[in-house]
Every structure is written in C-alpha cells, then in structure tokens.
C-alpha cells in the first residue's frame, strides 16, 4: 500500500523538494503550517510527515521542536539533509531594477539567511513574512505589484517566476535538516543510502540539583558517546526552567543508552527518546 506523505507546502517549498528527492511514487499532500502537518500524522490522515528541523545558518526551527515536545509526541523515523540555495524571484513581467522592488516575501528563516544581501541590495524593500518560501512565490505569481520572493528553483518553475538573482544566501554551506515523522516505521521508504545514524534525546533537569548539566554531559563523555548537538528550550512553566535536546551520533543500543538513562534518572532527570534513526544526505 502506498504511503501518504505530508509536507510543509504549498508546492515549491524546500520541504517539497526534500520529499520529491527522498520518496518515489508515494501520494503527497501539502499543509500550510508545520503544526497542521504534524497534527495530520497524529490523526492518521497521513502516514508520514516531513517538516524542517534545523538550518545550518539560522539554527533550530523552534516551532517544530516545541510542537513535538509540548503538543504532539511523534517519533522521528529518519532525517533528510538537503542543500539550500536561495534565489530572488520576480514576476516574468517585472522589468525594473532591484531598487524598484517594494516588498520581499518569504519565510522568516529564508529572509534571515539572506540578511546581508537584503541589507546591501534591497534596503528600500519592506520585508514580509510568510508561512513558507513556496507561499511567498505563489503570492508573487498572483499580483502585478513590484514585489519579490525568496525561494528555490522549484518554486520559480512551479509558479512561472524569473530568478532575477541566484544564490543570495549569506553563507555558501547552507543546508537544512528535515525530520521524517511517523507512527509506523514500515511506512518510511527512502530510496537513498544511509550516511550515518543518530539518536535524539529529550532531557529535563531537576530544578534543585547544582551541577546537574555537567553530570548529564559526563554520563555521555566517559562512555565516549559523541554529541553533535545540545540545545536548551524553555519548559514554558516559568523563568529558568528548561529542557535539553541532545543528538547522539549513534543508534540506540541495549548497553550504553540504558546505562546513560539509569545514571541520569538517579540524578532526578527525566529522559525521553524522540527517535533513533538513519540520516540521509540528499543532492538536489
């Protein structure tokens, strides 16, 4: 049976680009927001949801992490890493100069990735935030106003736009990690070779234990477990209360991870596994 794949849409987003590259033949559905996509997985409306998790320039997509922690707890089954190239898109009828562009539309992360370019070349333009880069491209295609969008080549092709300037992101090594979410591992079929494996943990520290974070990190360190990321996010229960997201560069096993869990729980920490999964590096 063909799996139903959901993604942050509309057509022309980087998420759609990641989905098209990773999945072949599956039915694909777009959603206007990240929570809508995650909720659809929870409600069994789709089998798999693909949402942005982290960008190399702008960091964590906080809405994704917070929603998975506080609202809907769906395991991460895979990770897709995609190179990101941001272009300035205009209507094919636009014949003016960059100084004639009145507005630039895109997702907040895309605009932030192009901050220096916008500051130098489009300082006169008003920055307008949309739910996705694809939505911004769609808006430009539906108006005759002198406005532009930041998006990819797929968006330009999908909405019939012209790339007036290519590769406007501020740093060349621009990649985004996408989380593949599903209740059923059998629904996830990615036709690429695995680059590496990773385990993501959610750790909540005891509020009254001095030096707890140091001891948390020590539990991984003396076992020689390499951490690729550690990030704090507010618990939303009051100032100074945080949880930590930790990425461990190895799959879950029956020796090291139970040992870490036991050591941390003895300190009063709460440990939850958000996923242990393969990582796929895509060329698009």
TrEMBL record:
Catalytic activity: prephenate + H(+) = 3-phenylpyruvate + CO2 + H2O
The protein's enzyme class: lyase
Keywords: Amino-acid biosynthesis, Aromatic amino acid biosynthesis, Lyase, Phenylalanine biosynthesis
InterPro entries, sorted: ACT-like_dom_sf, ACT_dom, Chor_mutase/pphenate_deHydtase, Preph_deHydtase, Preph_deHydtase_CS
Start and end residues of each Prephenate dehydratase domain: 4-183
Pathway(s) it belongs to: Amino-acid biosynthesis; L-phenylalanine biosynthesis; phenylpyruvate from prephenate: step 1/1
Entry's Gene Ontology molecular function annotations: prephenate dehydratase activity
PANTHER family tied to this protein: PREPHENATE DEHYDRATASE P PROTEIN, PREPHENATE DEHYDRATASE-RELATED
Name this protein carries in UniProt: Prephenate dehydratase
Gene, per the UniProt record: pheA
């Amino acid at each position: 049976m063909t799996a139903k794949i959901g993604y942050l849409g509309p057509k022309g987003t980087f998420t759609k680009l990641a989905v098209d590259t990773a999945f072949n033949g599956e039915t694909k559905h777009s959603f206007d927001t990240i929570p809508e996509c995650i909720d659809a997985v929870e409600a069994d409306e789709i089998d798999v949801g693909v949402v942005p998790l982290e960008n190399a320039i702008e960091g964590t997509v906080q809405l994704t992490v917070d929603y998975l922690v506080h609202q809907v707890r769906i395991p991460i089954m895979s990770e897709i890493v995609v190179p990101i190239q941001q272009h300035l898109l205009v209507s094919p009828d636009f014949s003016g100069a960059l100084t004639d562009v009145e507005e630039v539309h895109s997702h907040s992360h895309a605009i932030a990735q192009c901050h220096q370019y916008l500051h130098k070349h489009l300082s006169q333009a008003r920055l307008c935030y949309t739910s996705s880069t694809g939505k911004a491209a769609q808006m430009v295609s539906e108006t005759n106003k002198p406005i532009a969008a930041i998006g990819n080549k797929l968006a330009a092709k999908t909405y019939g736009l012209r790339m007036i300037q290519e590769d406007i992101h501020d740093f060349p090594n621009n990649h985004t990690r996408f989380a593949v979410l599903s209740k059923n591992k059998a629904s996830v079929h990615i036709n690429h070779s695995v680059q590496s494996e990773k385990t993501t943990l959610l750790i909540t520290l005891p509020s009254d234990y001095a030096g707890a974070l140091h001891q948390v990190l020590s539990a991984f360190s003396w076992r020689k477990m390499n951490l690729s990321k550690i990030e704090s996010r507010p618990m939303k229960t009051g100032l100074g209360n945080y949880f930590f997201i930790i990425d461990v560069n190895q799959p879950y096993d029956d020796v090291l991870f139970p040992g870490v869990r036991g050591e941390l729980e003895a300190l009063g920490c709460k440990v939850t596994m958000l996923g242990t999964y393969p990582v796929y590096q895509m060329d698009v």
